[in-house]
Write a structure and sequence with these properties.
Elements lengths: L5 H20 L4 H8 L3 H11 L16 H5 L1 H16 L17 H17 L7 H13 L4 E4 L6 E4 L10 H4 L12 H10 L1
Helix pairs in contact: 1-2, 1-6, 5-7
Length: 198
Amino acid sequence: MAAPTHADRAQWEFRQTRLAYRLLCAEARTQTICRFTSLSPHRLAKWRKRWGFSDTDRSRGPAPNSFTPFFRFPALRAEGAYLAILCRTFGVLGDDHAGSANSFYRLATGERLCDLLEFHRQSYQAPSISFDQLLLLARGLQTGKSIQLSHCSRCGGGVLRDPFQLVREGCDACRRPRQSHPAPARATHENVVRRHLE
């Protein structure tokens, strides 16, 4: 295998620094940024100070690690299903990093997640999910052990499913009384994504 050229190294470092900046803008946690970019916390702190980010511009504490909110709260169920479809559309999920957890944390994956989140915040009516919540969702969908993307049996729209739940529930819109909330058109989320990408 040929050794990387100076140009290759410079391009990689440019992508590394640019991704760090984008993740800081997305208020990702320090550990998350370091894992995606391979930057040390000390070096990231220097970049953060140089770029004018304050300590209040980042999330603190442990990263989210529970999928329960995606099943418990209707707003998060709908937004999470939309993001799950975007994960497929933007190529975040794939066999190339289906092995160890560390294989998910790569520059290309981080860049796609940033593209996805930026698109989501422009296309979704009231976005509320943070980058670290998106990362949790994407990693969960990648393994499929704790959360999966399924389809409503009535309208065909995307729904998040708990694989440990035997009964498959429909989307929230179809479970509401028909007279006040008619069923949405088939594959609503997919149509929204397709319309914005055309």
